[in-house]
């Protein structure tokens, strides 16, 4: 054991400070309601700014009971691969590319494209 270590104390669990002459701030119990029916009760200081939303144990968003409606930030719609492709190419261009690739695959397989007469 190294000589530098402190013997006889457990630094992780014990504090050398006492609670004498300490005044705790006043507490209030705040309720949050989840859409799944869960109720969350949390202690907050009376001076604390209360968040409008709290993450529930089920992963949903619980709203502050009797609180203001939370502000929702506008979100962008999710861009799919198809949306990004359409930003670069038009439908006729995509149809031409598809036909080229199909022709290439048919030639590799040795199957000639049949033309309608």
TrEMBL record:
Gene3D superfamilies: RNA polymerase-binding protein A (2.20.28.270). Its cofactor is Zn(2+). Coiled coil: none annotated. Bind 1 Zn(2+) per subunit. One of its GO terms (molecular function) is bacterial-type RNA polymerase core enzyme binding. Zn(2+) binds at residues 34, 38, 56, 58. Residues 7-20 have a biased composition (Polar residues). GO terms for biological process: positive regulation of DNA-templated transcription. InterPro entries: RbpA_sf, RNApol-bd_RbpA. Keywords: Metal-binding, Transcription, Transcription regulation, Zinc. Residues 1-20 are annotated as: Disordered. The keyword Zinc applies. It holds the Pfam family RbpA. Belongs to the RNA polymerase-binding protein RbpA family. Binds to RNA polymerase (RNAP), stimulating transcription from principal, but not alternative sigma factor promoters. Forms a complex with the RNAP catalytic core and with free principal sigma factors. HAMAP family: RbpA. This is RNA polymerase-binding protein RbpA. The gene is rbpA.
């Amino acid at each position: 054991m190294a000589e530098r270590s402190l013997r006889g104390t457990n630094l992780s669990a014990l504090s050398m400070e006492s609670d004498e002459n300490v005044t705790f701030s006043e507490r209030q119990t705040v309720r949050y309601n989840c859409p799944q029916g869960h109720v969350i009760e949390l202690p907050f200081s009376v001076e604390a700014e209360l968040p409008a939303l709290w993450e529930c144990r089920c992963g949903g968003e619980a709203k502050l009971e009797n609180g203001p409606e939370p502000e929702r930030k506008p979100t962008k719609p999710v861009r799919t691969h198809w949306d990004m492709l359409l930003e670069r190419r038009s439908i006729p261009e995509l149809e031409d590319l598809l036909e080229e690739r199909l022709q290439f695959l048919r030639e590799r397989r040795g199957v000639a494209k049949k033309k309608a007469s």
